[in-house]
Design goal:
Shape: globular
Order of helices and strands: EHHEEEEHEE
CATH architecture: Roll
Structural class: alpha/beta
Helix content: 10-25%
Strand content: 25-35%
Strand order of the largest sheet: 5-4-3-7-6
Number of helices: 3
CATH class: Alpha Beta
Length: about 140
């Protein structure tokens, strides 16, 4: 699931994501919440004003590549209640969402997916990051 690489989380995102984990820790999404919690536990936490602009934060738009197929996808990483797959809005509690949070452009991760398979993805670009745009209250 995780690899030794640095991930970065803003203080605000960490606080909000801990509430998401609490909310989803019981029930059918408990294992997904646990995976997200493990990732957050290894993150470097910094202020929203200091996070580098190429880091995937909450509400960022990110382009990633499936390293096996070469397929690229652009999504916006969002909270579960804002997720809309048909609009490219992926929940942070979904497997690919948990994999994306905190990564920087150029970083890769192998992440377990439903059905027992593993997907290796690489961050290609972060066209929009709220913090870099000065949008600190999303």
């Amino acid at each position: 699931m995780t690899q030794e690489r640095r991930i970065i989380i803003t203080e605000t995102d960490l606080e909000r994501l801990q509430r998401v984990i609490e909310q989803y820790s019981g029930g059918r999404n408990a294992s997904l919440a646990e995976m997200l919690d493990l990732e957050l536990g290894r993150a470097e936490v910094m202020s929203s004003q200091k996070v580098p602009p190429d880091v995937v934060t909450m509400n960022s738009t990110v382009v990633f590549e499936d390293e096996e197929t070469g397929t690229r996808q652009e999504v916006t990483l969002c909270y579960p209640w804002d997720a809309r797959g048909d609009e490219g809005r992926v929940s942070v509690i979904a497997p690919v969402g948990s994999a994306l949070i905190g990564l920087s452009v150029g970083q890769s991760i192998a992440w377990p997916m439903p059905g027992g398979r593993t997907r290796k993805i690489r961050i290609v670009a972060v066209p929009y990051q709220p913090e870099a745009a000065g949008h600190f209250h999303l």
